[in-house]
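Exam revision sheet. Question 4 asks you to relate a sequence to its structure. Input first:
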Amino acid sequence: MMIDVTRALFGVVVMAGLGVAPAYAGPFEDAVAATNQGDYVGALDILRPGALLGHPDQPQMWDADSRAGFVSVADKLSEQLWNDGASDEVVKSHEADFVLAFEIASDYATSEVFVNWGMRYYL
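Answer key, structure tokens:
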């Protein structure tokens, strides 16, 4: 009994010393989870606020990930709508997202800072 208490106390002290804290998943991770479940519209809703921020020549980490992720998810949504034979009405309901994704991709393509999109394996 005493050994169990000693082990438990030792474990608590070690965890406190190592700074063990609960994991935090932010909006980007939520968008990745939504994308992995096929909820592209939900992922775009999560990423949109970050995608609207920043400039490609001076991106912050959240802005850069959100912008790259937004373009990737919008492309997946476009592909899904095409493969499902979605009506023009459904496609037009997402037109603003597709325009924003195109603008983001164009901004990055014409920016002075080279962004290696091939290194974005998040989505």
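Marking note for examiners. The chain has one domain: 27-119.
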